[in-house]
Amino acid sequence: MAMAQKLQHNVTIKGTKDGLVLLLDDLCSFEHLVEELNDKLSDDHGQLLNGPLISVIVKTGNRYLTDQQSGLIREIIGQKKNLEIKRFETNVITVAEAEEMKKEAQIMRVSKVVRSGQVLSVQGDLLLIGDVNPGGTIMATGNIFVLGSLKGIAHSGSSGNREAVIAASVMKPTQLRIADMINRAPDHYPEHGHEMECAFISDEEDQILIDRISIVHKIRPELNRL
Amino acid sequence: MGEAIVITSGKGGVGKTTTSANIGTSLALSGKKVCLVDTDIGLRNLDVLMGLENRIIYDLVDVVEERCKLHQALIKDKRFECLFLLPAAQTKDKSSVQPEQMKKIISELKQDYDYVIIDCPAGIEQGFKNAVAGADKSIVVTNPEISSVRDADRIIGLLEQEEMEAPKLIVNRVRNHLAKSGDMLDVDEIVSILAIELIGVVVDDENVIKAANKGEPIAMSPNSKASIAYRNIARRILGESVPLSTIEEEKGFFSKIKTLLGMR
Ligand SMILES: Nc1ncnc2c1ncn2[C@@H]1O[C@H](COP(=O)(O)OP(=O)(O)OP(=O)(O)O)[C@@H](O)[C@H]1O
Ligand SMILES: [Mg+2]
């Protein structure tokens, strides 16, 4: 029979200690891939595909999957109730995604006074050379560094990164936010102090702490790009 | 071709109208041809401060709605041949004028006058947009208190979005003893927050109110502190470099900067 003679090597299933790895060939047509995936999964592999919950990593190599295509693969794998896709792994991304990543990794340098009623929002880290006045807001998906007085609101890790920090030459904010956490300012700031400080989420205390900038390299070693 | 300067503040009652009247008067004293424009439609005051209320026949809205020609609505000052006022309407509201119409009127006035001084209403809405529309430059007035400085900051942010020179700052109603005791912001603090150039400091002086009630701007009085301050502001507008000391007898902001720069 033609079906039986067809070479079946586009989908490779490997077992690892953490679950299954599905290697999808990146040169064959997508139709072939889908067909073979269906075949392989409906084949009786004994308890492997019917037993307890197994997590699956799908590796697509140099093939770019559209959302629709990866949706189809999810659907096929999802038919096996004990398989749970942990993630897709791929060597390729679109130019748009690459640009997005680049933006996230960049340091946006801005020189201005952020005044009452103004919102300055950037992707990536923000280096503000200037003050944030009361009533002004700065936001970054990454870290925030203010070379000036921070007297308004600063929100770092604005799309959820709890590792992000906020540093300022003069730290007198009305409010600090990191990811989803909010910290109101004390009702009074002492006359002196609050110079060159850094705010971060402390995991132990599950709140925003402020400390001298010199200890930050210990708390967030990943800030280092050297 | 003259220039148009809008006097604004955000917060109400800080002294925009008083400043407009006195800068206009001081510029006229220096022999410049000046037109004051009151854009506070519905709450006009400038005519009262100038003592010209009883001479109003037409107003800004009449001009916009073409019930009269622009020159018909202008009122000549009692004291100066070269000083005029375009009054606001009292019975209409701010939406009866559009920024484009304002621009047209201001640019027409700039043909005939050296300076067009525009008194802006409080707030950041339509009235503000109208007042700013035709202006080439702006002056922000603030009082030495937090809420007024906060609103000035907001206004400066909005002015910076306009195609205009960076705004200049006037701190009005400064009371020396309060700043010293720390109960009020001092001028240095205000300048450091707002980060724009200071063009004048006016003390709180009851003679300003007395003069206003008489319909005679304080700038006409020969030697009160407030009148000297206003005349100095006018000289700075004219491009003279008049030293700035926060309060005349004190070593203020300006001298501090000099010290920092190592000057005497
Ligand atoms: N330097 C001063 N010393 C004392 N009183 C002053 C001074 N400047 C202004 N005033 C008083 O403050 C009050 C408000 O001034 P003014 O009407 O000029 O403010 P404004 O900003 O134009 O107000 P509005 O927002 O209502 O238009 C007036 O009674 C005025 O006489
Ligand atoms: Mg007024």
List the helices and strands and how they pair.
The complex is a heterodimer of chains A (226) and B (264).
Chain A: H1 2-5, E1 11-16, E2 19-24, H2 30-42, E3 54-59, H3 67-78, E4 83-89, H4 95-105, E5 107-111, E6 119-122, E7 125-129, E8 137-140, E9 144-150, E10 153-156, E11 166-171, E12 175-178, E13 181-184, E14 195-202, E15 207-212, H5 216-219
Parallel strand pairs in A: 2-3, 3-4, 5-7, 6-8, 7-9, 8-10, 9-11, 10-12
Antiparallel strand pairs in A: 1-2, 11-14, 12-13, 14-15
Helix pairs in contact in A: 2-3
Chain B: E1 3-8, H1 16-29, E2 34-38, H2 46-49, H3 60-64, H4 70-73, E3 75-76, E4 83-86, H5 99-112, E5 115-119, H6 126-133, E6 137-142, H7 146-161, E7 168-174, H8 176-181, H9 187-194, E8 197-203, H10 206-214, H11 225-237, H12 253-260
Parallel strand pairs in B: 1-5, 1-6, 2-4, 2-5, 6-7, 7-8
Antiparallel strand pairs in B: 3-4
Helix pairs in contact in B: 1-11, 5-6
The site of magnesium ion has 5 residues of chain B, from helix 1.
Domain Septum site-determining protein MinC N-terminal (chain A): 11-88
Family (chain A): Belongs to the MinC family.
Subunit structure (chain A): Interacts with MinD and FtsZ.
